[in-house]
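User: I'm putting together notes for a lab meeting next week and I want to include a structural view of one of the chains we've been expressing. I don't have a solved structure, so I'd like a prediction I can at least talk through. The sequence is below, exactly as it appears in our construct file.
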Amino acid sequence: MSFLIENAVTISEVAAHLQKPEADIEAEATALFGPLGGVDWRGSPAISVADAAALATGVARRDLGNSQANLDYTHASEAWTAERERVRLVAFTTAHDAMTRRGIGASQAAAEAHEPAREAVAAFERSTPKPVFGSGAAKPRRITKTAKRVKEMVAK
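Assistant: Thanks for the context. Below is the predicted structure for the 156-residue chain, given as structure tokens.
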């Protein structure tokens, strides 16, 4: 089932502009925007003007890559946090149980079991660094470069 897109740009127009085969443009548009079902007034396969612009400039591919990188970072961060909490809980429970078996009261054992748990977490954090989004080396923003040049000029 096709649907009419007002202000549509046909796949063939995008292909002609980018000088690529229509099949490649259609495959990329499907990968970026999902299944194509839109048509223009003639019934030709089409996408919206905004999607065509994003496709032509590469913004759509970049945004998809950024979304995937953010999702990967979120999953890695959540897994790291869960493992960190598991390490803390195992250390706390082990220390707490050992103290209560020796006859130390539960509240005192709980208070004292926090120290081995903190040590276990510190060891985990040293051995397993927290995930970092992307490469961790962000490109300097234009304003930052400008501010640096101004400071250099003032220092002269």
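A couple of points you could mention at the meeting. Residues 59-101 form the longest helix (43 residues). Helices lie at 11-18, 22-33, 49-57, 59-101, 106-127, 142-155.

User: Perfect, that's what I needed.
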